[in-house]
Every structure is written in structure tokens, then in C-alpha cells.
Design goal:
The structure is a homodimer of 127-residue chains.
Chain A lengths: L6 H12 L6 H8 L8 H13 L4 E3 L7 E3 L6 E5 L5 E4 L7 H9 L2 E12 L7
Antiparallel strand pairs in A: 1-2, 3-4
Helix pairs in contact in A: 1-3, 2-3
The structure holds a DNA duplex (30 and 30 nucleotides).
Chain lengths: 127, 127
DNA sequence: GCACTAATAACAACTGTTGTCAATAAGAAA
DNA sequence: TTTCTTATTGACAACAGTTGTTATTAGTGC
């Protein structure tokens, strides 16, 4: 299975890899379309997914909101402002004093935490 | 604003409040339709949202999957099995040793954690 | 340049959920 | 009990975000 470096893929990779803003597919599309006017949103999705499959980006699935693509690969979490949509990084490791720490760190007043771990249950664990 | 106890609302409340299985709106619908054959899925959504607005249920927004409604109100988190879709409770409080603890507690092999805090950024905090 | 085929653009389809609105029925008043 | 008001409903459309499909285009090795 040969792999080709298309102009679309390279442009998307270059933009997403250097972006600090957790862009959505739409965000990326709006940027890329400036240099490749006839690119399709479908291709942006395709390539962002490819890049996150390859581990070059991290896909952040946000409940009730579009997925975002993160070029920071180190483990961290995110905060979404429910008022303005701002989406920022938080690097935390202990859950004790978590909300207070967040407040100190970035001034966010946390109103909700939805955590869903993904995993494989005992009966489906591949041995 | 008067509030009415409809048969639909009461039936949905009774089922969801006693359910231990984190049902989705579809799950609830499939159950309720047995006793109220002409109920609409729209009404199930409407009433589940109402109940979670009232704090009687907790709505769990799962990325890329339907919302679930939880009758357990104490703070806790969830694990979704990516193989079979099983969705279970986890009661954890310190993030240290978290994955190991989860493994000990319920045998789940965690493959991903997507945490999105929701909050209000400093500039939008209501004084 | 030529052949091969991965990747694309265009478009449709999908899932989960909410908007709209005329018809219905809960509950207060008569 | 009957009437009246209006909250709630059911039917249907619409929506957002994403993926499926497929003929066409364009990388890549020769």
C-alpha cells in the first residue's frame, strides 16, 4: 500500500502541526482553502484523521461539539469555555485540589467535568 | 409556568430513576413504547432533558456516542468498553495510580481517557 | 512519457439531537 | 362535570458533525 504526499496532505499537516489553537476540521478547512481553493472539507477530515492515526496529531473528541486536533502530544487535558468557546490546555496530574489549582492556574471557574474512560472490559481483553 | 404530570413524563421518570444501566434515549424509548405505544422519541428526549435539568437524572455526554442518563447522582466517572459498548461506573478520587486501580477494581484495560472540563473563562465570569 | 492506483472532489447519507407547530390533554376554575 | 387555558405532545423537518461512495485526478515508479 503505497503512500503519496499530496499537496493537500502536506498543507494540512504543516498547518495543523504548527497550530497552537486546537483547530476543528472546519477551522483547518477555512485556512487551507486560502491556498488550495478547491480543496474539499471531506479531504480535510480524511487527512486530519490520517495524521491522528499516525500519531502526528491527537484527536480530541468533545461531547456535543466538533472534534479538535491537537499538536501537543504530551498527556494533558482541556478546558472549554461554555460562554465563548475558548479551548485551552491544562497540564494537571493530581485530582486532589484540582479545581482550586485550575482556578489558580488560569482563572477558569469549572462548572462541569465529563470524564469517560475508554477501555476494554475483562471479557474482551485480547490475551 | 404551570407544570403538568403527564403519563409520558411519569413513566419515563419511573423507568430512568430506577435504571442502573445508563440508558440512552433510544434505550428508554424502546422500553417505554411497550406501555405507551404511541409515544414519540422526541418526547423521550424532551423529558429526559427536563429530568436532568431538574437534577433528577444526570446526563452523560459521551464523545461520538449517544448521551446516557444516569440515576446515580454522586460524583463518579464512567468506562465505556470500546469492544462491546458496556458502560459502567467507576468511583475514583485520586488520579495517581488511577489506571492500576481501575484495572484492580474491574479488570478494564484503559486505552484512552478524554477529559474535557467545562467552565467559564476569566473574562466571562459573572461577578 | 506512461501505467498504476492512492487520493481527491462532489455528493449523498448517516447519527444523534433539537426546532416547529397544530393537535391533545392536564389541571384550575366555574 | 363541563369548560377553559395552556403545557405537553406527536409528527415531521432540520440541524451539526462526520463518514460512505464513486468517478475523476494526480503522485510515484518505471
Amino acid at each position: 500500500m503505497e503512500r503519496r504526499n499530496t499537496r493537500q496532505l502536506e498543507t494540512i499537516r504543516n498547518f495543523a502541526e504548527h497550530s497552537k489553537s486546537h483547530p476543528t476540521a472546519e477551522d483547518v478547512y477555512r485556512e487551507i482553502v486560502k491556498t488550495i481553493p478547491d480543496i474539499s472539507l471531506r479531504t480535510v477530515y480524511r487527512n486530519l484523521n490520517k495524521l491522528s492515526d499516525e500519531g502526528i496529531l491527537r484527536k480530541i473528541q468533545v461531547p456535543n461539539a466538533p472534534d479538535r486536533f491537537d499538536s501537543t502530544l504530551e498527556p494533558h487535558q482541556h478546558i472549554l469555555c461554555t460562554e465563548c468557546g475558548e479551548f485551552i490546555d491544562v497540564f494537571m496530574n493530581n485530582e486532589e485540589r484540582l479545581l482550586a489549582e485550575i482556578k489558580d492556574l488560569c482563572g477558569y471557574e469549572i462548572t462541569g467535568i465529563d470524564v469517560v474512560y475508554r477501555g476494554v472490559c475483562p471479557t474482551h481483553t485480547k490475551k
